[in-house]
Fold this sequence. Notes:
alpha+beta, four-stranded antiparallel sheet
Amino acid sequence: MSASHERPTLAPSLYAYARDLRTAEPDAPLPRGGYALPETARAPAPRDVRRTYRETCTAVTEALAPLIADADTGRAAAEVPRALASTGVPDRTVFAAVAERPTPGGAVAEARARDLGRRLTREGTTTVTVAAGLGLLCRLGEPEDVPYLRVLGLLDGLAMAVVKTLTPLDRKSAAVVWLVHRARAAALRGLVDALAAGDEAAAHDLLPELPTAPRETGPEQARRIAEAVGLSELLRRRPDHSGHLAAALRLLTRMCSGRGYESEILAYDEAVDLCEAVAARAHELPPLLDHRALLVSLAVALHSGAAHLLPWPPGRRRAVIATLLAAVGEPGTPPDREGRRRADWIRRTVRQLREAAPSAPSGSPRLRIEVAVADPGDPDVVETRFLVNGRPLVPAAFGRGPGDPPERLLDSGVLRAGPEPREVRLAEAYCTEGCCGALYVTVRREGAHVVWDGWQRPCAPPGLPPLPDAHRFDAEAYDTEVARAEQDRSWTWPARRTARLISAGLRERPELLARWGLGRGWISTDFPAPDTTVVTFDGPPVTADGTPETEQPARQYLWRIPDDGTPPEQQAAAALRRLAEEDPRTYPEPSG
């Protein structure tokens, strides 16, 4: 009987398997997630070898090194399955290990490694063998490899390795493969099927029908769609199609969203061109409230978000912002409360953007602190943004998530520079700090300067940009800016002001919760219902008669306070009086 790593050689190559499936039904819609792999494609389960990631990668590269150097690539390809089987490493790690391996030195060595990669991707019968070939082609591939890679990308289990290998060769093809596997919404399948079939005209016709509801299209999905349809070129080639213009604006704002693990707008090669094209035709958009809000959202991203960091020609970014704002117009007074809130946000944000003066050159770096509030029609976190000489700090130094909320950074006074150094968290990853990190800085006063240094990114993944150098701000200007930002209320709305006033009251009177044996939690507005203030606290549950069950574990309680239209000062005062008089766990409103 043959060894387990040899048996799959009796099966067709994975490339031939995928090619034959597609050839048999060229016009049929692709299954969601691509074609299932044949049963013989998966190597036996990896051995239980306890190794670090780096040790695992070393085991793979050491096993393959002599084969990559072998002048007889046919013989080397035949030995790769045996070499990989000896490591017990799964295909995903094999791809990463080979892709990270230094490129062989010299033209002959590169050509040999490239030939081996092609043999493995086109003739390999298992995912682990094909993954090794993809790893080699990740940096050594050439345009002639694109058709083979696109076919392999139709298979479930290889897609993301194929996407990484295709990206430097053909971003459009890489985007199509990504969408085949990741765009699972029913509303996107027609577009994806047209792209997979190479029917660009049909894909372009379907573009205006993309989902428009908030959160239906994530930041990376938006980028991949833009790449797959060649959106920047399409917009210039079809200037008469207003549906394409609206879709382009929507996809751009999605790419600028912070609801992702990376800044997708910075990964989009044609971002500057598309921003220019959208701005030039923004006045053609129908005057819908949704379009006005999208224009403002894009302007905010260009002003203080990651889009600011794109490779803009001198003066063009500010010119694009001005053009976008000029096209916004007056939103009027919508009949519904949600529409009125959105119209108020548009007016307020446009005014703030127009009043934001560019930083003048000076001997010391200039700090500007702003609070960014997302479109109420597409709610997101409220974040504190820092601009040093007009350049956003958090996207440049971290890029994994938004700045911390103003309640944490401004209301608490942690940015004030005192005699003792203070470590301050400026931003947290989109997921959590424990998963993908956070950005910290140490704030200290040094004579006539306030210094930001001691930068840290605990738990952050590799590959992030270098940490900033120390910033030495003029102390007087720094103190003035922090005081201004702490007193600024222009970005808030009634329910948020109520939350901030309750929070301030509990900081001054901690006994209001302590008397009930409760600990204070976060206090803010409800994410899906921004007109509702939420007060959270922790403590043991109570019995029906209000007696605390101290033997029971503590639980979190949420007390929701809908905005009743009275001034926030009155609502906050009423909430604090109630906390002084009654155990909040006994209120009819809280959920535990």
